[in-house]
Design a protein that fits this description.
single chain; 58% helix
């Protein structure tokens, strides 16, 4: 294991993917909220 490596479990990896998609404009806040099983208010930055 090299220094600086980051390991994520499936839930964490899914969140990172969803956040990347939101930032790139490929996913709406509503879609992200459904994906994360959160309210839109919790997802909105």
């Amino acid at each position: 294991m090299a220094r600086g490596d980051i390991f994520l479990n499936r839930k964490e990896a899914r969140r990172v993917y969803g956040m990347e998609q939101m930032l790139e404009g490929n996913l709406t806040i509503k879609q992200a909220a459904e994906m994360f099983e959160l309210s839109e208010r919790q997802v909105n930055c």
